[in-house]
Every structure is written in C-alpha cells, then in structure tokens.
Amino acid sequence: MHKWLVISAIGLLGIACTQSRAVETLVAREVLYTPSTENLLNPERGCHQTASLIDNPDWGLTTDYSYVRKAGYTLVRAHVRLDAYRQTAIPDQALAEMQTGFADMRKNGIKATLVFSYNFPDGIETGSAPDATLTQIRAHLEQLKPIFASNQDVIATLETGFVGAWGEWHSSSNQLDTQLQKRQVFEAILEALPPSRMMQLRLPADHMLYYPTPVEATNAFDGSNQSRAAFANMCFLSNEHDAGTYLPLENKAATYAYLEKMTKYTVMGGETCQVSPSKARTDCPTALNELQRFHWSYINAQFYKPALEQWKSEGCFDQINQRLGYRLELKKTSAPDNVPAGTSFLLNISLQNIGFAAPYNSRGLEIILKNKTTGAIIRQNMLKARDTTYDPRFWLPENGAITLDSKITAPQAGLYDVFLALPDPLLPTRADYAIQIANTGVWDATLGANKLREITIQ
User: Could you tell me the pLDDT band of residue 19, with boundaries at 50, 70 and 90?
Assistant: First the structure.
C-alpha cells in the first residue's frame, strides 16, 4: 500500500465555479512520494538484447521475443543481414519475416533498435567490407519504406547501417564511406524512415559537417533532417578516441561540446567494444560521467562482456541500468481533498528526471480520474507538443524540478483515484508501453498510469 505523508494545508485556492455555483474556497493538501530503487521495465530505454530479424546462415531467425521482457529488458537490437541481396531485391519471404518479427515484438511489449548491414566481419577493423551500391541501397530502402511505416510503433530508433563493415560507415567495398556518398545514403535513409523516428549516425564528425550548429530546443523534434539525426557510439570507452569515433583527437574537445548539446534532443546509445591498450577509460567514474554527459538511453547488455563485467566489479552496473534513458520520480502533488461537483480545481505535480536522458520519441501526458465505485474513467490531456514544460521529450535531468499544473473540472459526485499517465501515442491502449514513475506504490499495471492521490467529489 502506498504510504503518503500528509502535510498541513498549504494555502487557499479561490476557484471560479461554473454556471450558478458560488465561488468555493478549496484547501490544498500536499502529498509526498517515496522513491523506488526497482529496475523498471520502461519502454525505449535501458540495456538491450540482440537478435536477428530475418533468417541468415550465421544467426538463424528470431521468431519469439517473449524472452526479452522475461530477461528484464524492453529493447532488442534487431539485426537485418542483407548479405545475400547485395545485387538483388530483398525477396518477399525476407520482407514477410520482418513483418512477423515486428508483430511478435508488439505482442511481447518490446521495441527494436534496428540495424541493417550487408556483412558482419569477424573482428576485422580495416579493409574492404562487401556492401551494396548506392543504387541498390536506394532500391532496398524503397522496399523497406512501407515496412518502416507500418511498424514505427515498435521501432525505437534506426542505427544508420547499410554502409561498410557491420553497417558502421567505414571500410565500404563500394566507396560509400566518402563524404559525398555518405550524405546521399543519409538522406535516402531519412526519406524512407517515418518522420516520427530518428536515425543514428556512427561518427559525430558527420553531424558537425552536415550541421555546424547542434540541434537545440527551438528546432528539436520539428521533423527536419537535423532533428532526426542522432548518434550511436559502437566502441564506447574502448580507448582515447573510442576506436576512431573521436578522430582526429585534436578536435575531441569540440566534438564533446557539440555532442553534449545535441544529445539533449536526440537519442544516444550504442555498445562497448574491445578495450585497448588498457582499461583506463572503462572505469565506473569515466563511464558514469560520459553516459550522463551525452544523455545515453540504451546500451548493449551482451557485448563487450569484459567492459560490462568491470562495471559490475566496480559497483556501477546497477546504477547504469537504472539511469539509462529517463527515470522519473514524483516528488509531491498539491490538490484539494474535497471538491464540489462541477467546479474547477488545480492539481500541481512536481517530478524530477534522475536518469541520463529525456524520452526521445513522442509521449502522451494525461491526467486520469477513475471513479472507485463505477470504474468510469475521465481523461484530460496535458500535452503541449514541443513545449519545454509539457512535452516529456524536454524533461532533461539537468533541468531539475519539473512542475506541471492542470486545471480540472470536477465530474459527478464520487470518490476518485487521480493518475498521471504517459502513454505511447502510437500504442495508447497498451499499458506495457506507458511510462512507469520510479516511486513505490503508484503504478497501476492494468491502466498503465501512476496513481497520485484520491479526491472526493461532493
């Protein structure tokens, strides 16, 4: 049972009543909330598993994603190996396998970080990795465009892919890793991807070339290519330059400053990789500093194991797992306990994001009143898209307290539970895709909402 600390009345709210009702004076009461240390199964964040979305001779085919949530994750890095189709169209069978895979993700309450590649070298860092021509990639993207559109609800993000070794935009056999060719692939991928989703480039130098000024609050989430161009670090903390990620080193300070700003409003994730020449950058203080500074939302829980084991041995792995992406804590609410039917009252909510990042895809924001006797539900939308206060994508950890005010018209008489809900706008009826607040005793797993308090309507 949720324990509320009741504070004495903090003030009087004069509320104008509707129709002929006289002005009421309502006494507001504060409720404080207890933080939770639970590892929450929240959407689009956290450690992830890996799987193959279509059949291939090396990995087989994942057809059942029920294991992902059972293992404590809501994300899977879904690989699509197109090795056999470097010179041909993607066959209908492979496209059907993608649809089946996405449908099973939806069934099991998870989402994918997608990556396409035409090869998967075994430890080869240099050389010429076989990929497809620009013409063939564009043809494949035309085939994939309707797949992306019909499954955007379970696509968290798309790692750039397609070019070079592992789809990481280097060592291309078709010389697609030149700036001219990369820019054309970049634009073709964003054209194929729904405007609601971001694409993660491999190298920050490309961002800085395409967009010398990093995205900021004024143009974040506006559907432009820049607002959808994110970053994935696939060799996090491996060495001084993260296996080429931050080359040339003389630009590293400027790159860090750029990414610190850009990742406030774009998804950031990736994985660790082989550490060389030492473990100097893989220690917990360095990891925590950079995960927070660059607003990481997800990381591979399966690779690279020695780096992950070091975090466990040094004692920061659990903190990283909890703080990846957003972690929202209720601090307090203020509202009257008793309200005459038909009048308006003010509900004030105070939260804080103690994670590394804000949500990066669209998110709903609602107040729900549920009649405890009849079960009747009344929803009130609070979302104001691209508003730094009422759009959860702007709830950055460094911004501190998040204060929300909602003016609610009291319904017919009865005792009501009051909830805060943050549903997925593309899956609004799915509680497993809604955000759970990190407090004890507030989560209603059936409703997919967080209970704030009770109010009596008289």
Answer: very low
